[in-house]
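[step 3/7] inverse_fold.run input=structure_tokens len=398
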């Protein structure tokens, strides 16, 4: 979408989109949506869970770039663009310097903070400042909620970066996992950073990273990360490098279940891994396993686990056939313990026998069986269909 066409579009539908985030308005109870697809939809699913209480659904995009690193767009326009696209939480995360490629300067880091503070509207819209530590071989890591940033000059490898994040008290996430060849030293585990490494990107731009690198002999990044011991939630991001922050439909987003739409509220939800990855705007996913919400621990050894899944995207998707796939550790690719047929617009309940001896985590993947995964894994794998969303994991604790 060009800047002119977006302005024309916002003139017609922007009021509806802004109402979606305005307390007390008719649309405040529904999620916003990207508006580049036709016909334009004003709202997505309701923000209230059908199975849990005490939190509200907010859609976030936590990974974006501007002219301050390798993006094309004016940073002064980014936060408003994401707000107009129906997002509730947005971050700018320009690259730190990557050897010969210039990234953030101190003045640009300060400016990012000023822009975020100006855009932040507590209770309505949360604007965050972050940065992307970038290594051409090890990989890229996003860091949020710090007062400073670091680059390869100060943090040349994973151990030094982890020490820096631990000292500054921020939170972080593994970006587009599998794209860079060394994959964070194959996700080598650092117990001291477990609580602060909160995210693993499963959707980046339009790509599903479940099997990224499989065709060249790598294992699933999801398996490599979680089997190494990390307790990351799962995210979707746009990773925008152009000028269409928050647009178009089909790029990654993260659904955050927070007590309030403020910086502190989002931080608490991220620390609790109370969020899901999606590449569909306006989607609501909530799920419990034996009464525990996604991102939590199950004091469990062996037996039946009762899953309850709330899945909705508003009137447009009511009755749409979808699959719920129960992912377990496996060795190089996740094993699928069960595939449950469901549809959007309903609550689905099912029971799956699990054994903690088979691995310490379980994830639900929501998929569209009518479309193929653009990055397939093993031949015949149930997840070679089109990924719609991932819950954050549950961890089985014996």
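[step 3/7] decode complete -> sequence:
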């Amino acid at each position: 979408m060009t800047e002119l066409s977006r302005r024309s579009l916002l003139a017609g539908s922007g009021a509806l989109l802004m109402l979606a985030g305005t307390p007390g308005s008719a649309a405040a109870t529904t999620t916003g949506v990207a508006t580049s697809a036709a016909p334009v939809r004003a709202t997505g699913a309701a923000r209230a869970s059908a199975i849990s209480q005490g939190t509200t659904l907010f859609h976030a995009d936590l990974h974006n770039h501007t002219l301050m690193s390798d993006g094309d767009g004016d940073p002064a326009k980014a936060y408003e663009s994401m707000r107009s696209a129906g997002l509730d939480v947005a971050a700018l995360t320009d690259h730190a310097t990557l050897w010969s490629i210039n990234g953030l300067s101190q003045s640009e880091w300060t400016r990012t903070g000023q822009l975020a503070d100006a855009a932040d509207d507590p209770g309505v819209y949360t604007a965050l400042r972050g940065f992307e530590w970038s290594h051409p071989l090890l990989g890229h890591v996003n860091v949020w909620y710090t007062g400073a940033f670091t680059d390869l000059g100060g943090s040349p490898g994973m151990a030094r970066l982890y020490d820096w994040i631990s000292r500054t008290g921020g939170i972080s996430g593994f970006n587009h996992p599998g794209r860079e060849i060394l994959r964070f030293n194959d996700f080598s585990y650092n117990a001291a950073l477990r609580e602060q490494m909160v995210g693993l990107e499963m959707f980046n731009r339009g790509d599903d990273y479940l099997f990224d690198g499989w065709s060249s002999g790598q294992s699933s990044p999801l398996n490599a990360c979680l089997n190494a011991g990390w307790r990351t939630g799962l995210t979707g991001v746009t990773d925008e490098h152009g000028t269409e922050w928050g647009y178009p439909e089909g790029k990654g987003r993260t659904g955050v279940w927070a007590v309030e739409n403020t910086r502190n509220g989002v931080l608490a939800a991220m620390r609790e891994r109370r969020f899901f990855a999606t590449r569909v705007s306006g989607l609501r996913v909530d799920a419990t396993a034996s009464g525990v919400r996604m991102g939590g621990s199950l004091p469990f050894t062996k037996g039946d686990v009762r899953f309850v899944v709330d899945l909705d995207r508003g009137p447009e998707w009511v009755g749409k056939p979808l699959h719920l796939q129960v992912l377990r550790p496996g060795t190089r690719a996740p094993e699928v313990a069960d595939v449950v047929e469901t549809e959007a617009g309903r609550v689905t309940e099912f029971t799956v026998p699990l054994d903690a001896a088979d691995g310490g985590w379980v994830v639900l993947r929501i998929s569209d069986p009518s479309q193929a995964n653009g990055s397939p894994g093993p031949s015949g794998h149930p997840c070679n269909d089109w990924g719609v969303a991932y819950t954050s994991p549950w961890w089985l604790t014996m």
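[step 4/7] annotate
The first strand starts at residue 56 and ends at 61.
The helical segments are 3-19, 78-84, 106-119, 158-168, 183-187, 221-227, 263-271.
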